[in-house]
Amino acid sequence: MMVIDITDILMEVGLAKDFEGYLSLEDFVYQGDNIHFEKPFYVEGTVVNGGEFVMLSAHVQGHAALQCGICTEPYDYTADNEIQINLKPIPDEDDPDIYVYSNNLIHLDDIIIREFILKLPVQRRCSVGCKGLCPYCGVNLNNEECQCTDEDRQPIDNRLRILKDFYANRDREV
Ligand SMILES: [Zn+2]
Ligand SMILES: [Zn+2]
Asked: Which residues contact 18 (CB under 8 A, 6 or more apart)?
């Protein structure tokens, strides 16, 4: 957990304070995908008393294992994010992008996770050419070729053929 005490910079507009450190993030599930953090993120930044707001800028670097949306395997993702946010001691109903600090403390964890999620790729893929899973036997086609025959791969066609035979026979009976 990374918490910045801003009591000292709140004394006077224009005062600033640097911070840096390593932040361990908890694994979580996002849109049904597992997000796993192997190592802590490195964070460095500055907070400034901007009068109306406290302004925080930070550079966040780290790696996460995301889940491929096609083959479901984890793959390495590099987060290298610039964060620029404003904070107030009470929520701003007109501006939901304003973060809140309380008791002169900024909890960086929540901010960094939210910004990390905002910057995640919408389509998460282990590679541009991910072949995905065989829809019939479930084998990961990036690693091996499955043993499905053309017959296995056409269950819908087979079903249609049966249906066609059925109608053909029925017509004959009529
Ligand atoms: Zn994949
Ligand atoms: Zn298969």
From this structure: 44, 45, 46
Quote the ligand 2 centre to 159 CA distance (angstroms): 18
Question: How far apart are the CA of 42 and the centre of ligand 1, in A?
Answer: 27
Among all bound ligands, the one having the nearest atom to the CA of 143 is: 1
Number of the ligand closest to the Cα of 129: 1
Could you report the per-residue pLDDT of 64-121, keeping only the tens digit for each?
Answer: 999 999 999 999 999 999 999 999 999 888 888 899 999 999 999 999 999 999 999 9
Strands 99-100 and 105-107: unpaired
Pairing relationship of beta strands 33-35 and 54-67 according to DSSP bridges: unpaired
| pTM to 2 decimal places | 0.76
Using DSSP, state whether 170 is helix, strand or coil.
helix
Per DSSP, 40 falls in state P
Going from the Cα of 67 to the center of ligand 1, the distance in angstroms, rounded, reads 8
Q: Is 168 strand, coil or helix?
A: helix
**36 CA distance to ligand 2 middle (Å):** 29
Would strands 99-100 and 74-88 be described as parallel, antiparallel, or unpaired? parallel
Alpha-carbon distances, residue 154 vs 106, 131, 166 (angstroms): 58, 18, 18
How many angstroms is it from 127 CA to the middle of ligand 1? 6
